[in-house]
Structures are given as structure tokens and as C-alpha cells.
Amino acid sequence: MSAAKVFSCDPKNFVLTDEMKQAYEEDGYVFIKGFLDKEELENVRKTVEDTDLFKNRVYGVSDGKGGESRLTLWSHPGSDPTGMLARSEKVAGTSEKLLGGEVYHYHTKLMCKDPRGVGGKHIWHQDYGYWYKNGCLFPDMLSLFIPIDPCRKENGCLQVIEGSHKCGRIDHDLVAGQQRCNEERLQEVKAKLPHKFVEMDPGDCLFFHCNLLHCSDSNLSETKRWVLIPAYNKASNNPTKIHHHPCYTPLHKVPDSAIRDCRNYTDLSGKEFLDPKTDKTTDVTANKSPA
């Protein structure tokens, strides 16, 4: 197992290079250091950390090993700094370049791993392994992984299997409270492809394909590990059925400067936070006994 390859950028003038796009297409992800500058990161952090508006909506999903992967999820970007981030050219516009056409905001998650082993694992899966079940016919979808806190091996950093997006969709089943890919196929893929730890600093970013196999371990450190994960669907891939995430909704993009200039820290109207009881792909009632 080794570290993921890394690209640098100018966060005030981000440009998706041909090399970055090639990495996404070949490896299933592109890791960009310093994607958010200090002002952008602090403005986003102020929204999610300095108010209770997000914290009060967090719920836990069992990992089957005694821990919980805690999160809150919203359908539409809204007008707070997290919404400006999701609507910005360097996030939404880059997603369009990687997917080859207009995108819309599928949802954003705030993932919260509490310290000292309380923050549980996120087991091996592909996002499209369950988005497929939502009526999305094609894997024309991606996510971004943007740390609010440092992500290291000891606090459950992201792990990926490089190139696994080329394997296509793998069958998934509900294990404890989460979706997990078929174990036999997982082991076969891991025997063929590189397993990478993606250690990241706050403000770094990973764009990753919806068929990339990924997971994260429990947080065994003394500090929290919070991450924002915006997800996008290509407009032409409008789901065939109504479900707990949005169907096609036009995305009104904003300039990157809106991330640092936004001062709306308390009005979260229009975001439509998910009621976990309506999510058919997880189970918030699952107990914490081993799976």
C-alpha cells in the first residue's frame, strides 16, 4: 500500500490541467493540494463548526463493529458558504469538465468521525453501487472529498483502490447500517490493483469517480475528523424515479470569490436536509453488533 499521487494548484486561479483530467480518467480520482485557500476554508469552517445548525442534524450509521459513521446530508446547495462552495466554478465547473457536460448538485454530506474509536468505519463501497438503485442509469456521477480537519491513517483517512472504477458497478448489499460491495469481488480487485491511503490536509480536494472503490477506518486519534463531500450527477443522467436525492435541478453557478465573500452563516433555507428514515440505502436503526 502506498500514498496517492498529488497535484498542486493556485487556489485563487484553479485550472483543471490535462494531466489532472488524465489522472481522473486513468486512476478514478485526482488529488489536488491546497484546492481551497485559507480564507475559503475558514469561511466554510465557520458555517459548519461555529453554529449548531449543522451539528443538530447529524445522525449515526452503524459500521457493524461498534462504531458509527455520523453524517448529515442536504439535497440543494443553499446560499451559505457550503452552498457557494458547491456552486463555485472550481467545484461545479470542474465537475462538468470531468463528466463532459452540464451537472446538477446531487447532494452534499458532512461526514463526522468522533475521536477515540467512536467515529466508526465507512466500509468498502462504490457510490454508484447504491446510486444505481436510485434510478441513475449511467455512472456519469462524481464526488469531492474536502477535509475540514487533517485526514491521516490514525483518524480514518480515505482509502481507494486505484483504477477500480474501470471494473464497472459491483453488487452491493446492506451490512449493518451501510452499503458494502461484494466481498469476493473486492478481494479479487484488491489483488490486481493498487490500494492507496489518501492522507490530506484541510482545504485539499479529491475528485473521484462514482465507481471508485473506497473506504475509511475508525478514528483512533484524539481529535475529530470532519469532511465535506459534495456529489454531482450529469444533467443527461436524470434518475428514472423519484427518490430521496434530487432529480435534475438547474445549478446556478457562482464565481469562486463567492466562497470567501459569503457572510450568510445561519440561513440554511432551501438546502432540504435528508430525513434519514427516508433513505432506502442505509439503515439508521441497525445495531452496533458485529456484522
Automatic annotation (TrEMBL):
Any Pfam family hit: PhyH
Cofactor(s) recorded in Swiss-Prot or TrEMBL? Fe cation
Name of the protein: Phytanoyl-CoA dioxygenase
Naturally occurring in which organism (per UniProt):
Littorina saxatilis
